[in-house]
Structure formats: C-alpha cells, structure tokens
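User: We ran a pulldown and think these components assemble together. Before we commit to crystallization trials, I'd like a predicted model of the whole complex to look at. Sequences follow.
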Amino acid sequence: MDWHLKEVFGLFQQQFGLGPGNGPSSGTSLLKVDALSTGFIKAIFGALAVLWRSNPWKRLKPSHLLGIKVDKDSDWPDARQPFVVAQLIDHAIYFFRSEADAQGMMGIHGLGNMKSIPLKGLLRVTYGLEAELSPVNRKMIKTLGLEIAGAKAYPVIDVVYSPKDIADGFPSFRNPTVEELHWFYAALRALTQIHPLLQQADGVQGGAMFKDLTKNLEISWPSEDTGLQGNATVRVTFPPKDEHEEQVNPPPKLAEVVSENRNTAESESKVPRQCTLCGIEVPADRAPRCSRCKAVIYCSHACQKKHWKETHKVSCELYKAMMEREEELEIKGFSFVCVMEHSCNWLESMGLHGKGMWRRLCTCFKQYPFGLLPPAEGGSMARVWAVEHGKYPPDSPLQEYLVLSSWAEYYELRGLPADSPVALILSFPLSLYSIVTSLCVPTKTMLSKGREVIVHYLGPEGELDWLPAFSEIGYLLGGSGSLHVMMIGPEVPIALAGGMTAVNPKLRVTFVRGLYQEEANALPTPHVVVALNSQLEAHSSWTGALEVIKAQAVPAFFTDYAEPCCVNAKQMLRATGLQITHPVSANPFRSPVRNQIADTNLPWYSNGFVFGVNT
Ligand SMILES: [Zn+2]
Ligand SMILES: [Zn+2]
Ligand SMILES: [Zn+2]
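Assistant: Here's a predicted model for the assembly, 615 residues in total across the polymer chains.
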C-alpha cells in the first residue's frame, strides 16, 4: 500500500478510535436501520463474506477508483445514484458520491486534514477484529449468526461525514439508509464479480486497464420484484464491453467458491406459470402474484381477490415468512444453474438428459417401471453418473468414520469440484446417511459402536434405479457399523421384490413390494423408518403406514419439498396421534437445485426439509 495511505489510515484510526464503528459518536448498527429486514442484513453480510474471501485487495490498489453504476439514475431517489465511486483501502471499502470526493480523500494531506472527509459523507465498510467491535454491532453479529471469517474480519458499515460543521471537530457517523444499502449490496456483488474479470483482463493487457476503471463498471439487476434476498442476477460490464459479461469461472472447491452467480427463475423464466386458484396457464412474464407474500401466482386480479377471501388471507403472512427464508435455503457455492424450471431443459443444459441415473429426474423414461431402467451402456460408474472422471464420488471407502453436516464438507472430503451436479441424486442417500448418523440418536450410537442398523425405507421410486449412488453411504460408513436398508413400497417391481443386493460391505439393500401396513409384520423390526420426499398429505395410503409407525414406536424421519407440505404433514401426523419430536428444519443434504413450481414462488427443494416422530 502506498506510503501516504498507510499514514492516512493510521491517522484515521487515531481520530476515529481503535476499530471500525468505534468512533466517538458511532454506535451504528444495521439493526437500527428502519424497515431493513434481517434477511437483507444477512444477504449483505453474505456478500461481504464472499468479497472478503475473494480478497480483491490483492489486486485492486488504493489508487484504483472504480466507477459504479447500479441501474439507471432515474431508478434512484432524486434521480441520483447514492454513491458512484468505490475505493479499496486496506481491508476497508469506501464508497464516494463523486470522483472529486474520492480524490479529495486521496490527496497528499489525506485525513490529517479533517476537511478531506466529504461534507456529504461517504459510505464505508471496515473489516476489523471482533475485539474492536462496538457492543451493538457485536450483538447484531452474534444474534444473526453473521460471523464471516473467524474473529479476524467483522465488517461494520456506516456513513461518515466531514467534521466541518461540528463544534468538537470530530466526524459524525450514521447508519446508511435502506436505499443506500440496496445500492451498496449491488455494488458488493459486482465487486466480487469484477475481481476475476480483472484477472482475465490483466492477463491480456498487462494491467494497463486499471487506469481506466473509473466510471466503467455498470451493474444492472431486476431491482423491482426479485426482492433483495440475494437472488438477483447482477450483471457486470466494463470495457471491452462485449468480451466479458457476467461469467466468472468458479474456483474448484465448493467450500471455497466465491462466486454467487445465480440465474433467478423469475428474471429468465420462459416456462409458463399457473394460476393457483383456477389452474389456468399464464405466461411467465405476465403472471401477477400476491403483492404481500409474493409467493402465490394468479391469472387475474379477480382470481386473486377470490382466493384472498377464500383462504389466502389466513396464510399470506405465513407464506411471506416462508419467502423470507429464500436466501437462507439457497446452498451457496455450486457453480451450475441452481434453479430448475423444467427438468428436461435443465438436464439438457447440463448435458445429462437421457443419460445414466439422470433418466429418473424427468419423465421421459416413465415407460420403464422404477428399478428397471435399462442399464447404462457399459455399466461403469462413469457411465452411470454420466459425468467426467473426478466429478463423481471415487470408488473407495473411507477408513475413518466422520459425521458430515454439509455439502461443502462432503464435496471437500470426496474431492468433488463445485461444478459436479451429483448432489442432486446424492441428496437421497446422503439425507438417509444424515438421518442415521446424526439426527437419530439411537442409530447414531449403534453405528459408532460398529453395529448394523435396520432401516425401513418407505416409498422408493427413482431410488430403485440409484443403487450406485446409495453405495456412497457404505463408503462413508467406512470406519463404523453397517446399514441394512429395506426398501418397501408399491413401486418396487416384482422382478426385484424379495431380492437382496449387497451394494458393498457396509450396505445391503432388500426390496419388499407392497404397502408398508401390509408388509411390516413380516419384516424384522427397524431401528429407524425413513421416507424421503414423503408428501404425507398427498397419498391416502400414508394413513395406514403412519398407524404402523405409531404402533412400532420406533423413530421415523420424513423429508418434504417445501414448508407448506410440512405444515400439512404435521396435521396428518397429529391426526394419527403422532407428535413431531424432531422439528421441521432445513435438511443440509437437500438438493442444491431449487424447483420452480408453476403456481408458487415458495422455496421448493427435493428433500428440502426434515422432521421426525418418536425420536
Ligand atoms: Zn385464475
Ligand atoms: Zn399473499
Ligand atoms: Zn426429459
């Protein structure tokens, strides 16, 4: 860093206190900003974390000013962008209202002359030590679980003014406004993306382009309806305009991936939606939705009005709360498109359509009963997964028994890159694995003692063709007990029924054809019952199965796609006299790809949520 900036920073610290937000009159905290949702605060901290990890300070020197423009000027109050120039200084970022302001701060007299803080203020974020945080900020960070990089980097965001008009000569601090934070959030996401672009451009032009960064970065995003929950597509352009657009090559590991590129379902959607009330198809770009919860799709205001009166007025608030979990449910880091509007199209875009186990993710192969898909040509794991070597789990058991709690851990452990889509299918075996090794205490204990756990796995469908994926459970159980999974359901084909497959030394699978209530008596008592994507309310046959679960009094775990499904499931369970003892929670091994459902915008994931009874 330039000598004079170091000095400036030192003076700044002297004047303003030891750490960020600790200035004499600071006490700023985002929690105190009116009308700011905690979801958005989390989104901002998420973006700050990503930026911290991508370490743009390595590349952007304090002498580089970045001109930033978010959307059109007319989209902002007073037809002006709140800030237009960004500068990265020693793990802090300053956002100025004009280039002149920025150059004023940069001047050789720097902050030693307090007049160099712009009169109208600058928005700054400073990353500092936890110990230096003001109590209000520390409290906010702890309460909302916003620790971004250990105790080393806690960001504080505030606006600081010139002390010119203040008697004691100290600068004044305030919280940013919501508008300013909207702008700031877009800018953060853009900074994350500009960084790898600079690297590419640097390679080509030998760094000369840095001189030209001012006023060259433009960001646009669908600001109106996407909500600010982190799923807006931020587009970044800078000269040369047509060379680099939006695309960022993700680093190889899921756990370290910095890019948050997402295609939102809504902004790019072409697949028609459906009126939630009358079922009429509506074009995606003209599908009105409830303006409060933003969750429900209608064909017309008439339908909206009617639906409101009939049922929606009691559920709207609940749906709104469910929509606010969008950001939290999004699993960060995967570098493929994590929204699926249409399964065939998504598979096609990934080059997986009609291949290997992926044939069960759309309905194109429904002429083959479950369990009877023709084997993938050659039958090797590479063919079965239909992805390059290195992108599917290795054919090797673990020697040690580890309990995994996230996709990031799993991908790291198995050496899978962030662009490997295998999590979509592995969501089934890994949800089962997570239940028996972590959620269900008795089976967890048995496994750690090296014993065999019997699982009644109810209602298998695609799973019957995914045994190669299930073999991964056996590998993960390398150093512990083993699993006997009895797949029981009406979809088990006669050809498989009664058979047993030893998938590997730690996992064997048996198949039972029929309804659980009719078959259970003849089977060994399970240690745990599991039903994935169960949709308890959608199939009447669950009533009988739940009676059996109640009579057996063994732990049973269910997953379902979305929160409303879980609400309905709860009612079903209660009607059977079963109480949920493991509360509905987000399943860490849900599919990373969100399904877009025709008549609702609610977060919808395969194996999205998990809950349990008799636990
Ligand atoms: Zn309608
Ligand atoms: Zn609503
Ligand atoms: Zn298809």
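The domain at 328-613 is CATH 3.40.50 (Rossmann fold). That may be worth checking against your pulldown data before setting up trials.

User: Thanks, that helps.
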